Amino acid sequence: MTHQPTLDEIRKAPKVLLHDHLDGGVRPETVIDLARETGYDGLPTGDVEELRAWFREASDSGSLERYLETFAHTVGVMQTRAALVRVAAECAEDLADDGVVYAEVRYAPELHTSGGLSLDQVVEAVLEGFRQGSEGRGIRVGALLTAMRHQARSMEIAELAVRYRDVGVVGFDIAGAEAGYPPTRHLDAFEYLQRENAHFTIHAGEGFGLPSIWQAIQWCGADRLGHGVRIIDDIQVAEDGTAKLGRLAAYVRDKRIPLEMCPTSNLQTGAATSLAEHPIGLLRRLYFRVTVNTDNRLMSDTSVSREFARLVETFGYGWDDLQWFTVNAMKSAFIPFDERLALINGVIKPGFAQLKWQA
Ligand SMILES: O=c1[nH]cnc2c1ncn2[C@@H]1O[C@H](CO)[C@@H](O)[C@H]1O
Ligand SMILES: [Zn+2]
């Protein structure tokens, strides 16, 4: 049997992360510190390990709506400039420690203004944190600005993303409960972004099925899909393993539309029943442009390396598969083509070559 990459080895590989929520990746100790400093008194416990376990367990509800309730506690302590700078800096540090060389981290500016910050001040604080936390650590972190799909501020947030596009904001997203909130509610924002030649991804096919994916791509013009797991509803697999793609699935594959897959998160929200049955296995086999992501490192108690290690364990993936996921992600990033290429050829390929050589 060929050697399978171990968690320690995977940590050393140069990895790329496209789907990670800033408010879903706060260190538990920081949540507690910030609650004390900012006078937030809603935490379920003041003990670090208990709080870590609480987030993980409370997120295992099997429903996206209930999964999202836990964010009240992280968002609750991220309402000052100092808190946002700290959380963003620690995010960059934690990702760098995990061996991530390029990350796009998202958050919803509109959720961080209850302490009096303006949307611009929120964005500036997070960018400053990413700058501080990345410095000298061999990682580049770009921001994606998210609008909440049940709210009506997407146009404002899209304009904010365009205003900050040259100083670290690389794209736009919508998130929140999916059922009942189709992406077309925000069509004006997506059309504005297209006119501005800006990039965006849409959470779709997680808490709701094919219509959401279809709208995200064919009405809204999404560059990438957040999750997109339900695309398998448009694929029929025969007993001999051959697959027949419906028109939407074929379109997604033919157009190389990146799928930002987040396996552990999907098990928690009920978007998939087990890792072995997770659509990522089939989609990878069919050469969809699959990428592997964390979604919420705190709620899922995970990291890119851990997601990779779980996939290795479940599907028997080797270094070539992990490199394929990584190159897919880098190709799908929202930074300019020449910069993506430089990371693929100068960092990712040499890094994986060295690990494969050692294995
Ligand atoms: O998996 C997800 N699906 C949909 N929305 C999410 C997910 N994870 C986090 N958020 C939502 O995005 C906001 C901004 O980061 C979070 O506050 C949370 O409400
Ligand atoms: Zn997400």
Keywords:
single chain; 359 residues; alpha/beta; TIM Barrel; 4-stranded parallel β-sheet; 16 helices; binds inosine; binds zinc ion; zinc; zinc ion binding; hydrolase; EC 3.5.4.4; Ado/ade_deaminase
Structural summary, described in words:
With 359 residues, the protein is of the alpha/beta class. The chain has one domain (7-358): Metal-dependent hydrolases (TIM Barrel). Helix content is 48%, strand content 14%. It has 16 helices and 10 strands. α7 (119-134) links the parallel β2 (100-107) and β3 (140-148). α6 packs parallel to α7 (119-134) and α15 runs antiparallel to α16. The radius of gyration is 19 Å and the shape is globular. It starts with 6 loop residues before the first helix and ends with a helix. The model has no long low-confidence stretch (mean pLDDT 97). Bound molecules: inosine and zinc ion.
Give the secondary structure arrangement, pairings included:
Elements: H1 7-12, E1 15-21, H2 28-38, H3 48-58, H4 64-69, H5 71-76, H6 81-97, E2 100-107, H7 119-134, E3 140-148, H8 154-163, E4 169-175, H9 187-195, E5 201-204, H10 210-219, E6 224-227, E7 235-237, E8 243-245, H11 247-254, E9 259-261, H12 263-269, H13 280-285, E10 290-292, H14 304-315, H15 319-332, H16 337-358
Parallel strand pairs: 1-2, 2-3, 3-4, 5-6, 6-9, 9-10
Antiparallel strand pairs: 7-8
The chain binds inosine and zinc ion (ZN).
Please write the string of helix (H) and strand (E) elements: HEHHHHHEHEHEHEHEEEHEHHEHHH
Radius of gyration from the alpha-carbon trace, in angstroms: 19 Å
Ligands and ions found: inosine, zinc ion
Strand order of the biggest β-sheet: 1-2-3-4
Distance between the termini: 13 Å
Helix proportion? 40-55%
The low-pLDDT segments are none
Total count of domains = 1
How many DSSP H or I helices? 16
As a percent range, the share of strand residues is 5-15%
- Looking at this structure, what is the CATH superfamily? Metal-dependent hydrolases
How confident is the prediction overall: mean pLDDT? 97
**CATH architect. name:** Alpha-Beta Barrel
| Biggest beta sheet summary | 4 strands, parallel
CATH topology: TIM Barrel
CATH class: Alpha Beta
- Number of beta strands: 10
User: Which structural class fits the helix and strand makeup?
Assistant: alpha/beta
